[in-house]
Amino acid sequence: MGINKGGEKMKYSAHSTYYNKEGEEVPSVTTVLKILNKPFLQKWANIMGFKRQKIEDILEKSSIIGTMVHKLIEAYLMEKMYVFIPARHHTRTLAMTYMNTFINWKHTHVLKPEFMEKSHSSDKFGGTIDFYGVVDGLHTILDFKTSKKFYATMFLQLAAYCIMLEEHGKKVEQAAIIIINEGGYNEKFITREELEPYIQTFKKLVDFFHVWYNLNIDEGWGDILA
């Protein structure tokens, strides 16, 4: 956790909070990744503006669907009960379309989950892992996305999860991004060896984040990253 000049503890996020073994709050993986420049987001926002669509509404809808799909997948794989009370019928229909896509993907693999949607922390960052278990005989991290395409930051996210799991004594042999949406599914598996460059990159990135954050702590990370 950051400390301001008055000695007061600063929060990294208003959302999920993570603490290291010393009890200090640490930034989430997604917060660390926000310091990367993403020019395609600005271009997309401009296009949506010309179409008279509110960016906040689009992002909120995407977030709601993403969260709902993650909960449905967890309930399905972990054999939990899930009470489905969406705000709108359209939301339910879309979420179930995504879920059917996931089930179609699942039939192409053998999954044995050890845990899902579980929070972990390292000394410098934390995050919530969608899936860890055995996939097709290999110890695997899965991250489910409802986006349209793959981005490099997704694999940096997997790298961060791998760091945390290995620090907790878990074996990682491969990791994958599974894209699920109304158009179908796509997958990209990467071996532990192929993940190594992303791991080294994320380690440098999180170190840079803490240096950069401490230099700008008077403004607060939320203001800087906005």
Provide mean pLDDT, rounded.
80
Q: How do the SSEs run, as a string of H and E?
A: EEEEHHHHEEEHEEHH
Give the low-pLDDT segments.
Answer: 1-14, 40-60, 221-226
Structural class, from helix and strand content? alpha+beta
Number of domains: 1
Number of strands: 9
Strand order of the largest sheet: 5-6-7-8-9
- State the CATH architecture: Alpha-Beta Complex
Query: What characterizes the major β-sheet?
Result: 5 strands, mixed
Give the number of helices: 7
| First-to-last CA distance | 19 Å
Here the CATH topology equals: Lambda Exonuclease, Chain A
Task: Give the CATH class.
Answer: Alpha Beta
Strand content: 15-25%
Choose one word for the global shape.
Answer: globular
Explain what this protein looks like in three dimensions.
There is one protein chain. This protein has 226 residues and is of the alpha+beta class. The chain has a single domain, classed as Lambda Exonuclease, Chain A (Alpha-Beta Complex), CATH 3.90.320. Strands 5-6-7-8-9 form a 5-stranded mixed beta sheet, with helices on both faces. The protein is globular. The N terminus and C terminus are likely disordered.
